[in-house]
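Risk mitigation, structural track. In case the binding assays with zinc ion fail to produce interpretable data, a predicted complex structure has been prepared as a fallback.
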Amino acid sequence: MAFGMPCFSPAVPSGQAVRSMDRSKRPALSVASGLARPGSLQRKPALRFAGSLDVQSLLQQAKFPTVLSDLPVFEPTNPESVKTYQSILALAQKLARPEVSKMPVGAIAIGNSGKAYLGANLELKGGLPNDTVHAEVFALLNARANGESGIQMMIQSLRPCGSCRQALLETGNPDLPIHVVDMKRGEVDTKTAGAYLPNSYHYASGQKNWFQSPRLDISEPADARFQPAWRAALQSYLPNPNRKTWAGLSVQTSDKKQFEGCVLTVPAPNNTISPLQDVMVRMAAAHEPVERIQSVTMVEPAAPDYSFSALIAQVLRRVAPQATFSVLSQS
Ligand SMILES: [Zn+2]
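Fallback model:
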């Protein structure tokens, strides 16, 4: 299905402009209600381990849980503990979509609740490098989508790249321990997020972080089709309220599953997490391929400082050409 240039619909409420990036004029989406956080629709109960952790059985499962609870605390100097977490990292690596690098990377974010959130690298061949999601960011977004208030610890199979070092500081905790596990030798290298990125560039308002987003004041769209995307947009992380960079995305898949995503900014805007990257993480965490996206609605500011809609249309054309895409510009 061809994607056209955005065309503007005249029959929209005052202050709102709906653009359809699909010329087929598909019928309206069915709309779910009662979404408090964009992740709550996908939130699943974390797996509980009554006794010893049987990661080996999880490794055999195609659709293993990506949120684990009641794990033994990671002890970087205990070889048995390191071995256990090497297996969990191997599980996380199974989530990878390393179409370009061919190198699966695994990460585990331990939330304030004690639950472990798995993450891996997601790469879409033929796209823009900015589409890529790194394992650490996947794990952090997985934790955020499940309502965590913060992160206690990271355990990962590779050192964080420069971009991820900044993202790890967006947890608001420069003392965050980052344990890098050598997957062959079992050696652990531990440093803090602040040690990985000293003298960092950060917002003046250092109290805000990805896990304590200020509530944004975005008026509710009259068109019910866009309300899930609007609710997602409300969860955008936007420490500078004067910037018009928020956005929300809601996708529905061919098997009627729904996923939402929002914008998470970092001080350097070129590393901002797009709502599609947030959606990619939630879909991968649910073992749902992005190729199953059937319809997409998006809400973004009218005259945004940065716009994600053209980029998202480009990605959809490539990975889900059957998808419809409608954008509401909200003043
Ligand atoms: Zn990275």
